Fold:
Amino acid sequence: MNFSKVLPGDRIIYSEKTGIRRIRVNDVEEMRRMRIIEDDPEVCKFVEDLQATEEGLRNFAKGSSESVVLGVIQGGEVQGWICLYPDESERLTRLGLAEDAVEICYAKYPGAPRGLMSSGLRQVIEMIVGETFTAYTDPDNLNSSRLLEAVGFKNAGKIKYHPGAKTLDNFWILNNSPLIC
Ligand SMILES: CC(C)(COP(=O)(O)OP(=O)(O)OC[C@H]1O[C@@H](n2cnc3c(N)ncnc32)[C@H](O)[C@@H]1OP(=O)(O)O)[C@@H](O)C(=O)NCCC(=O)NCCS
Structure:
């Protein structure tokens, strides 16, 4: 083992106060909490493609070969979700990025204590090594920006999320290189 290669650069390992796991789509109480998250005005303000129907929400929570939703769990309950999916190649091209990237989006249960979403996100980052993560935030969404900064994302400029968008979003990136290389 080459010990000089362990934890290169400015990387930090944290111990965590939450767990992450798939959403239990057959658990009525869990899906009730997912619905409350989905209908939270703060979430509606900043998250696209929210699910109006219970079937849509169930399918979203189930994930697919193109996306995964992980619940951030504390006290046995879903305190928020983190969704991962491939970032669009058209947008990555506009950003000048040649490689694929995993885009993240997230939302927390209204009133959940602070620090749970960052804990969940850190575990996702520890688990999925070797990928580039991207995220986009509305300039007014300071909570989201702070969360991304806290877990190690860098603000790398602004971009129209959709080519026809009238406003610019902040673009965030984390090159999640291995801790042992
Ligand atoms: C975005 C959202 C998930 C953030 O939730 P949250 O409870 O504030 O997140 P957390 O407390 O877990 O993490 C925020 C981090 O920022 C840090 N932070 C908060 N305020 C800060 C400040 N003023 N300066 C520096 N860091 C700050 C916190 O300390 C925390 O990091 P830590 O856990 O290392 O201490 C939540 O506001 C939400 O669901 N918003 C609506 C949906 C949404 O906007 N989704 C994102 C779309 S891009």
User: Anything to note?
Assistant: The mean pLDDT is 94. Residues 136 and 171 are 5 Å apart (CA to CA). Helices lie at 28-39, 41-46, 54-62, 89-94, 116-127, 142-150.
